[in-house]
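Proteins fold reproducibly. Next comes a concrete instance:

***
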Amino acid sequence: MTTKKRRNWRPALGCLVVVVAIVTCSVGSVVGFNAVCSAYLPQRLPVYPDSEITQRTHNFIQEWGMGITTMVLYSPDDSNTVRSWYGVHTGTFLRESIENPTPITYLGRQIARVDFSIATDESGVGTQIILFGTCLN
């Protein structure tokens, strides 16, 4: 009488479960953080009204998501008007997000950095606006 040897699949199945769990957690974290970044950064650096986007770049999944995003805008308005508008809007948003934090604004302030540059356009007419955001980079 011969007995068949059965393979024990439990170790292989255990490894597969661990690998699937690690991949799921990693993908979930990336998707979650990307959603926080893409919800926070456009509020923190709004596009100037009636401006024209002349250049936009990002280096990860989506614009204003994880990674670095740069946007160059042109406005026919003078640079003092644009600078004043950004000062009011970014200041108001920051004050409100500190006084009444939401999970997005609280986490966004921790993981994202923003900067902007406002200068007279190279043509001498209008204003060039450069918005720069980085999140978890």
Q: What stands out?
A: The first helix runs from residue 10 to 44. Helices lie at 10-44, 79-99, 103-111. Strands lie at 52-58, 67-75, 112-120, 127-135.
